[in-house]
């Protein structure tokens, strides 16, 4: 009996060892033995806060478009701290795609101080498409006495989540206007929390970098009329001269007319863009890029900014190297960066 049990025990150990060996030798999900994209991949898209523009577009992109692409087993968009956090977490392999600002993507790849990437260049991200302008919006309540950037001195100002793209832009605009963080009471808050702070009076103003109209501003304006401050011409000139990725932009008063805005808003913009993990296969990224533009109606329905996403403008402001799969698609369509 002992001998019989001993052989049974040895047999079970052998079966277990074979099973474990099989698990350990399985290729990575979405790749064959040469890393060329066999099987199916789960796509997680880093977006932003649920009161911004990235989240509704990212959710629609995942659920309505990418989830139907061959080679994708599941696609989902998740709320995040937006641009800087998205890139940092992509570097850790947490996401396969992300929405980011084109300036932040450039800082990350180059390992620059802005965006907190100094000496830490991110090497596993590639460009897929640029999407639409993201406007720097300085929001206050209409019943406040704030009418210019100069009036922010001594006030409680939300500058975005700490280290976010919005915070980088807030600091750039303030510095160009001759204002430092020492001149204001800095609050590191995302768009939704900033809007809540403006509503309940714990904040005086907030910087928001997002496609207009931005839902956080619209939601605030539903209960409290708002004023969005224009950036002075000399500040715009200083910003566009020093930073090539900034472009001058005018937001029509009609954009926030229902929220109490009465005048056009002069500001600067960066570009929103979609980045992908460099390790995704060429065929998969080709199919994802193709699907995004061929089924763009889902993005048009998700947010007003969806209409600004076009094949013709997909490489405008592209600040990092394209993924080979995306480049292949654009080459076929005759689209190239100028």
Report a brief summary of the structure.
This is TRAP transporter TAXI family solute receptor. By secondary structure, this protein is an alpha/beta fold.
What does this protein structure show overall?
The chain has 338 residues and is of the alpha/beta class. The chain has 2 domains: 41-131 and 272-333, Periplasmic binding protein-like II (D-Maltodextrin-Binding Protein, domain 2, 3-Layer(aba) Sandwich); 134-271, D-Maltodextrin-Binding Protein, domain 2 (3-Layer(aba) Sandwich). Helix content is 36%, strand content 20%. The chain contains 11 helices and 10 strands. It has helices at 2-24, 54-65, 83-91, 102-110, 165-176, 191-200, 215-221, 233-242, 282-294, 297-302, 324-333, and strands at residues 41-46, 72-78, 97-101, 125-141, 156-158, 185-187, 205-210, 226-229, 247-251, 265-277. Strands 1, 2, 3, 4, 5, 6, 7, 8, 9 and 10 form a 10-stranded mixed sheet that branches. It starts with a helix and ends in a 5-residue tail after the last helix.
Instruction: Report the helical percentage.
Output: 25-40%
Unreliable spans are 1-38
Q: How many helices in DSSP terms? A: 11
Q: Which percent band covers the strand fraction?
A: 15-25%
Question: Secondary-structure map with pairings?
Answer:
Layout: H1 2-24, E1 41-46, H2 54-65, E2 72-78, H3 83-91, E3 97-101, H4 102-110, E4 125-141, E5 156-158, H5 165-176, E6 185-187, H6 191-200, E7 205-210, H7 215-221, E8 226-229, H8 233-242, E9 247-251, E10 265-277, H9 282-294, H10 297-302, H11 324-333
Parallel strand pairs: 1-2, 1-3, 5-6, 5-7
Antiparallel strand pairs: 3-10, 4-7, 4-8, 4-10, 9-10
Helix pairs in contact: 6-7, 9-11
């Amino acid at each position: 009996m002992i001998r019989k049990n001993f052989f049974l025990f040895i047999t079970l150990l052998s079966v277990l060892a074979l099973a474990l060996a099989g698990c350990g030798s399985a290729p990575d999900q979405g790749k064959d033995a040469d890393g060329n994209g066999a099987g199916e991949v789960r796509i997680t898209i880093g977006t932003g806060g649920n009161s911004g523009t990235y989240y509704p577009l990212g959710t629609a992109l995942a659920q309505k478009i990418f989830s139907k692409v061959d080679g994708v087993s599941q696609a989902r968009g998740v709320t995040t701290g937006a641009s800087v956090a998205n890139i940092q977490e992509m570097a850790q392999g947490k996401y396969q795609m992300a929405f980011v600002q084109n300036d932040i993507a450039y800082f990350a790849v180059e390992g620059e101080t802005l965006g907190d990437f100094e000496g830490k260049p991110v090497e596993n991200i590639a460009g897929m498409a640029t999407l639409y302008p993201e406007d720097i919006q300085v929001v206050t309540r209409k019943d406040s006495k704030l009418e210019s950037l100069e009036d922010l001195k001594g006030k409680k100002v939300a500058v975005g989540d700490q280290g976010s793209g919005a915070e980088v832009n807030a600091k750039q605009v303030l510095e160009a206007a001759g204002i430092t963080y020492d001149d204001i009471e800095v609050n590191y808050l995302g768009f939704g929390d900033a809007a809540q702070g403006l509503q309940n009076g714990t904040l005086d103003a907030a910087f928001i970098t997002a496609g207009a109209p931005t839902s956080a501003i619209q939601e605030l304006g539903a209960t409290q009329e708002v004023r969005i401050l224009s950036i002075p011409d000399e500040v715009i000139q200083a910003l566009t001269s020093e930073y090539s990725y900034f472009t001058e932009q005018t937001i029509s008063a009609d954009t926030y007319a229902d929220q109490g805005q009465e005048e056009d808003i002069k500001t600067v913009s960066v570009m929103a863009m979609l980045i992908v993990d460099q390790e995704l296969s060429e065929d998969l990224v080709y199919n994802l890029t193709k699907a995004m533009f061929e089924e763009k109606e889902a993005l048009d329905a998700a947010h007003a900014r969806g209409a600004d996403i076009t094949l013709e403008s997909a490489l405008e402001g592209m600040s990092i190297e394209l993924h080979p799969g995306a480049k292949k698609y654009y080459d076929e369509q005759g689209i190239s960066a100028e």
